[in-house]
Design a protein that fits this description.
With 335 residues, the protein is of the alpha+beta class. The chain has a 6-stranded mixed sheet with strand order 13-10-15-20-17-18. Strands 1, 2, 3, 5 and 7 form a 5-stranded mixed sheet that branches. It has a 5-stranded mixed sheet with strand order 14-22-21-16-19. It binds copper (II) ion (CU). The site of copper (II) ion has 6 residues, from loops. Copper (II) ion binds next to loops.
């Protein structure tokens, strides 16, 4: 009698345990497949020794929620040069968002700065007067859009004068992957945002910006940072670069010295593929996806500068380096 009671209790506990286990699993599966949240007040992209340009794949979550704080920050824009920036998330560029076509993208922007700002998503099809409205200090805005168009898109503050808000650092990239992935498998992926700073000491030089006379032209917010800290890839890698040009004024004539682009997807639509391209222009407010392969027999082990081929801008900082494998160093690399 006692034994059978024990058996019954044990069986009951087992059933309860299995039930709880199933609920936990169901919950986990639901979280994994339905919603992913990222709070950029808590997670900041590493900017030391260089802004982290490496990308990871987007998750399977069909809903991606991002909380983006607007905050003032003093940032490094060149070696030994600091600047009083206005930012999304405390860095320039702001955080990298990555979603897939078909995902619902939930945006919450909180203005933690002392002046009005806003946010404008080039990847969204949404009424601008609603989603991109002015956000007063201590206020926030929230909206959802469905990502419909693959590519590398600019996100920026759209508060007038927009020139001032962009030159102050208020931009970030959003990458939208095709629903079924890219036509080729990349071994390494990087994001590069080109932009300009117009400075007088640590602050903005408005007349210089109106004259389009940049002090610095940079990839990912700091002059020459990838010349000093190269992007590392391996021999044989197919490398995919998501290039966004935040401007506010200069076109990025994107080129890799010693390589030819296998494929370029203007705006990031795989059906728009170009092949065998040396240089491709990305306008302010635009983006494109670039691919090249560092084959052993062609563009193999070595160092490959990436530049805007508008060389006054390269001289002002828009030069970086891709290091393929562990090449012998040469003292007289001219770029
Ligand atoms: Cu702003």
């Amino acid at each position: 009698m006692r034994t059978s009671t024990h058996k019954l209790i044990s069986l009951g506990l087992l059933v309860v345990a299995l039930g709880v286990g199933a609920l936990v699993l169901l919950g986990a599966a639901r979280r994994g497949s339905s919603i992913e949240s990222m709070d950029f007040d808590r997670v900041q992209r590493s900017t030391s020794p260089a802004y982290d340009a490496r990308l990871t794949r987007p998750s399977e979550a069909g809903v991606k929620a991002f909380r983006i704080p607007i905050k003032d920050a003093t940032i490094d824009i060149a070696s030994g040069v600091t600047y009083h920036a206005w930012t999304f998330g405390g860095t320039v560029p702001g955080p990298v968002l990555r979603v897939r076509v078909g995902d619902d993208v939930r945006i919450t922007v909180v203005n933690e700065s002392p002046m009005p700002h806003s946010i404008d998503f080039h990847a969204a099809r949404i009424p601008a007067n609603f989603a991109y409205r002015t956000i007063m200090p201590h206020d926030s805005v929230a909206f959802t859009f469905t990502a419909r168009d693959a590519g590398a898109f600019m996100v920026h503050c759209g508060t007038p004068p927009v020139l001032m808000h962009i030159m102050q650092g208020m931009y970030l990239p959003i990458i939208v992957d095709p629903r079924d992935g890219w036509p080729t498998a990349a071994d390494k992926e990087f994001v590069l945002v080109q932009s300009e700073f117009y400075t007088k000491g640590q602050d903005a030089d408005w007349p210089a910006a109106m004259a389009k006379n940049a002090s610095y032209v940079v990839f990912n917010g700091r002059a020459f940072q990838y010349r000093d800290n190269p992007l590392q890839v391996e021999v044989g890698d197919r490398v995919r670069l998501f290039v966004v040009n935040a401007g506010p004024n200069a076109t990025s004539d994107f080129h890799i010295v010693g390589a030819v682009f296998d494929r370029i997807y203007p705006d990031g639509d795989p059906s728009h593929a170009l092949s065998g391209v040396q240089t491709y222009a990305v306008p302010p407010g635009g983006g494109a996806v670039f691919e090249t392969v560092f084959d052993r027999d062609a563009s193999g082990e070595g160092q490959y500068p990436f530049v805007t081929h508008s060389f006054a801008d390269a001289e002002k900082g828009a030069v970086g380096m891709i290091q393929v494998g562990m090449p012998t160093m040469y003292a007289h690399l001219s770029h």
